[in-house]
Amino acid sequence: MPNVLVIDDDRAILALTEKALSPIADVETAATAKEGIAKLRNGTFDTVLLDIQLPDQNGLAVYCEIREFDRRIPVVFMTVEAASSTAIEAMQLGAFDYIGKPLSVEPLRDLVEKAIEQRQISSVPVAISADDKSSAESAELFIGRSTAMLDVFKAIGKVSKQDVPILIRGESGTGKELVARALYQYSHRGTETFLAVNCAALPDNLLESELFGHEKGAFTGAESRRIGKFEQCNGGTLFLDEIGDMAPSVQAKVLRVLQEQRFERVGGNKELKTDVRIIAATNRPLEQMVEEGDYREDLLYRLNGVTIELPPLRERLSDVPALVQFFMAQAKKEFNKPDLEGLSPEAAELLEGYHWPGNVRQLRAVIRRCVLDTVMPVITPDGLPKEINRLKTTAAGTDNHSAAESGPVEGAGLPQLVKRLLAEKSTDVYAEATQYMEKYVITEVLKSTDGNQSQAAEILGITRGKLRDRITSFDISLTSHVQIG
Question: Which alpha helices (H) appear in 132-247, and where do they start and end?
Fold first, then answer.
């Protein structure tokens, strides 16, 4: 059986813990810090229960000694003031957890069982190490050996020194700006200016001013002349992200710059020259937008001198371990977690099996949060977000995400979904049910309009841009019969 050491000067607490934990572990007790440390050094323990207030030494100091002896032992603090600053300080030091006095048997037993499990998992060699031996200058773009990513690297090598417009296409979070920066760094303009503008982040009038600048008095609030990005970036590279969200009026002016390298500031009549290489990126279906009259066909052809397609992470899952290692090494250093060793095999398997709708950006966020939250040397499945952890209970042969994540399923409905989530003890019922309902409504409306987004947006009472966002995020396939991907 596992061994638990309880260090507390209260005899009632020692007796209670012995009785409560006897079904799951062998319990040894100590009434002082000195006695507890001595037993720890002479025995083998899977978990330590430690009182914060001991007669001969402060519990926090004892914890530091335990950490020096064995950093893998989960330490659970016991305190009469579970919400006190001392308990918070204990957690900041890296304690596994804390429990308030008076002790309750079931919560105590559950917590100790969890700590013992973590100890056992942490003793298994890690599947993915948190130590990245690659160069500190590496970027996540160049991590990956899948065929799809090798094709991206080859394309960058072929076109980076060619002074032609480049269009980078891919889902949100795949790393389009990283590709743009690589194209810039390997080009003959690599020593010149690189500027990036997110076309979706600015209203139309502000985007025009941001790109082309404006003269004093050009519009309300224009109290002085402003130099735009095309002037600032003369001789360099301008990255236009989310080019599909650019208003038609701005599209026309960008087209002129691409054709003639000439433009005028907003409110001005003086023609200015510039020498800028444009790299654009989008996750929008530009060809479809051209057909619907939302995007200029001539601008699409100008931007589309060379196209680089970035694969979604779900299509290159073999690259996940290398990306995880890179992000763990970054977070380990940033969050000062020198004891972090890496991921357990079970956690690594879950990460490699997930479908990653948010792509590399989502993976990075997940790893950073796991590293920030962990108090153990090894990150286990319990430390992963619930949407990834749920894969543990997914039946073999089914898709790697729940019905709520996949959207409406034939034969199922909202009541069934809510019942299932409640049975699974989900803590995100509202969000998952709302997403299910929204996807169902949008899909049904699109079916009724035979995929016509303009009519669907009007019926739904939302903008076409918002509808396109939902179609992309919900993976709705627009065919002759609208389907859910």
Answer: 147-159, 176-185, 204-212, 229-232
49-97, pLDDT tens digit by residue?
A: 999 889 999 888 999 999 888 888 999 998 876 555 666 677 777 788 8
| Exposure string over 286-297, b if 16+ CB within 10 A, otherwise e | beebbeeebbbe
- Reported pTM: 0.65
Residue 189, Cβ density class (10 Å: 0-12 exposed, 13-18 middle, ≥19 buried):
buried
Among 3-7, 197-201, 226-230, name the most confident range: 3-7
Q: Which of 193, 220, 217 is nearest to 265 (CA)?
A: 217
What order do you get walking across the sheet with 26-30 strand by strand? 26-30, 3-7, 47-51, 75-79, 97-100
Beta-carbon neighbour count of residue 41 at 10 Å?
10
136: which 2 tokens?
């500190």
Instruction: Compute the distance between CA of residue 291 and CA of residue 452 in angstroms, rounded to an integer.
Output: 12
pLDDT in tens, 358-391: 999 999 999 999 999 888 888 988 889 888 877 6
Q: Can you spell out the DSSP letters for 391-454?
A: GGGSPTTS-SS-HHHH---TT--HHHHHHHHHHTT-S-HHHHHHHHHHHHHHHHHHHHTTT-HH
